[in-house]
Structures are given as C-alpha cells and as structure tokens.
Fold this protein.
Amino acid sequence: MASRGAFSNKLGFILAAAGSAVGLGNIWKFPFEVGNGGGAAFVVLYLFFCFLLCFPVMISEIAIGRKTLRNPVGAFNELGFRNWRFVGMLGLFCGVLILSFYNVVAGWAFGYFIEMLFANFDVGSQFGDYIKDITKVGFYAILFMLTTAFIVSKGVSGGIEKAAKILMPTLIIMILGLVAYATTLPNAMKGISFYLVPDFSEINITVIGGALRQAFFSLSLGMGALITYGSYVSKNDNIISSAAYITLMDVGIAFIAGLMIFPFVAFNLGGDMTQVSEPGFGGPGLIFVTLPGVFATLGSTWGVIVGSFFFLLLSFAALTSTVSLLEVPVAYVVDEHKVNRNKAVWIVALIIFVIGIPSLLSGGYSEFLSNFSRIIGVPDVIDSDFLSFVAATADVLLLLGGCLIVFFAGYIWKKKNLHEEIAQGFNGYENSFVKKFLDFAVTILSPVVLAILFILVLLNNFFGITLI
Ligand code: PHE
C-alpha cells in the first residue's frame, strides 16, 4: 500500500495524530465549555472521561486502521462486516459537519493574527461585530480551506508531519509563558480556583454531557480520524504507548490552556467569575473576547509580538486538525471510489466549504441563523447560533460513533483480534495490566457507559428532557 503514503516513523505518527487532536478544541472550545459547565467539576469529569472511557475507543480506532489499512468505511468492509459500514459513513458525515464549522472558527483565529499584527487590540471588545463582517471572515474561511486542501493534496508524510513536529512544541512553550504571565495579574487566583477547585454540586447531566462531548471532540475520536491515521502506522509501533502519548499531549495542552485563560478571564472581569457563562462573554467568543485585552496590557511592541504569534500558532494547531478532518473523507473517496487524490481533495473541500456557509453567516450576519436553535425550538447547548448547533450535533454523533466503534471492536470484530493487533509492536502485551483493562473496557466499561450517556445526553441536549 505504498501509494497511500505512510508515516516515516513512530514519532511522525504520534505528532500527526496529536496534531489532529490538538487544535481549537483545546484552546478555543475547552475553556468556554469549562466556563459553561461551571468550572473545576467539569474539568475533573473531562479528565476522567479522557483516560477511562475514551482511551479504549482510541486504541480500537488505531488498531482497526492499522489492521485494515483503510479509511473508516473501507475498514469495516475489509474486516468482513459490510453491515458495519454505516459506522464509517456516520464518521464521514460527522467529520464533514465538524470541518464545516471548524474552518470558520479557524478563519477567525487567523483573522485575529492579522488584527494583532496591526495592534488592533480592541477587536476583543468588538468580537460580535468582527464575526458579523462577512467579507472579512468569509475571506479568511476561504483562505483556511484552501490551505488545508493544499496540504492534504500533498499527501500524508510530507505536509502534516513536518508542520506538526516544529509547531506543537512552540505552541506549548508559548502557552506556558502566558500561564506564567497570567499568574502575575490581579484576581488571577480567583480564575485558578474557578478552574481547579471543584464544586461537585454543580454536576448534572448537562455538565456530564459537556465534559464527555468535549473529551471526544478534543481527542478526535468517534469519527474514524484515527482509523484513517492508524492505517498509516507501522506494524512495529506500539499502539498503546502511542495512544497514551496522544492522550497525554492533548489533555495536557487543554489543561494548560485553561490555566492560561481563567486567570485572564478573572482579571478582565475584575474577579467576578459568575459572568463566564454569560452570552456575549462566554461561549464561542471566550478566548476571542478575552485575549486581545490581555495582550494590550503587554504594551504595543510586546502585545503585537505575543498576540500575533499566539494567534498564528493557534491557526497552525487548527490547521493540523483541519487537515485530519479533510483527510478522512478524501481517503474514503480515493480508496473506495478510485478517484484521483488531487481531484478528490479539491471537490471534497469545496463541498464542505459550502456546507459551512450557514455557520459562517450565523455570527450575526443572518438573523435567522444567528438565533437558529431558539427559532426552531431546540434547547441551546452553548449558544443559539447555527454554528453552535452544528458543533453540538457533531459532538453527540461522535459519542454515538465512539460507542459503536468500541462495541464493534469488543463484540463483532472480537476482542481476540483486537488483542492480536495490539500485541504486534508490544512485547509482553499478553500478560500486561493494559490487556486486562482493555478486556474489560472494550466489552463492558466503554460500550455500556457510552451507550447510556449517549442516550441521556441526546435527550438532554436536543429534547430538553432530563432523566437524571
Ligand atoms: N480534536 C480536534 C481539536 O481539538 C478537532 C477534531 C475533531 C479533529 C474530530 C478531528 C476529528 O481541535
């Protein structure tokens, strides 16, 4: 399968998969979900879900991908379970939905890079007007999709790997620097305690659902992105340790992003953290509203340097994720419909861009799309705009996909085969603790708990029905 491309080494795969995982989900979405979910209790649940429930799903995805060398739809076929192709299809659909709105937000991030270059720190307080300006955000969204498509058309190891290797560590250092700065600001401790001192009475199904959705989204799970990436992994690689690195890196970056944002938020709000979940401040605007003002406090020279660099790196982090999102449907079209890769890339990118237009218009430009959930009468998960609605829908579908994938691995493909695949590249797997854990996790823990939570979250998020 040389023509499909392969990662040059294990580090290449880990960095690329972590590149998929680390993105707007960690730095843009995680903080506002935490804000909306009441703070530290959400964080505790999120960590718990990532390490216990999601980890087995991640292993299953990578193992299925590496075993079959296929895209998510082809993978089920290849294993001999044609009836399960629908899970792959669901994944494709989900990926398309995600990329459609993700590209819009990535465009905002890149646009902010330009604004910071011109020292326009006021853009934070004018965020609402900024995303309404359709020529501007439309232009950046087009630019972002073109860049993504260009990289994907260049093939797997060339584009994705190289970018991820340099940029990820830079981003981490940059965030850590900002964390250090954040702690020197007035009211910083109020932000930190909101973020780190849990109040478990805050927990309800909305918060649980938010944390679980966030875990799936952030780890790029449930839609076959890692089936696709797994198909490029060598048989000598250890799937378990790779998955552990990816999870730790992703969770670690989200965690430090929170450490950075909440002191800033507390500083901006004069210590009154109750406003974090309020519309106009919290929600999808959180980092876009908060950060420019903070950069302004650095003075014009440092503000421009730090601010523009930050949003540039954020755009790159988003790019390694958009690349993985586009790669999934492209791999499908190339493998299953024998379309030339280049052609597949540009057609799929165009279609997804068009699907993203309503999200683009839902930042205030279109009255209807900006108040979508309220008008059609579904509860707001985060906000009422169409972009938030699509994001919430995709998130819930990721849960369903993840649940089905892990169920498939445990019961249909059978855990014996899963174990066999994992054992390649892992000496001593047979008697390891991990094997025992996975044995339990892929048959009971993950499928059962995910199925229950999926139903509860679906009812709560879309029908306003709260069973527990
Ligand atoms: N995990 C990515 C992020 O956190 C988003 C993503 C989701 C990418 C699903 C691929 C698949 O930004």
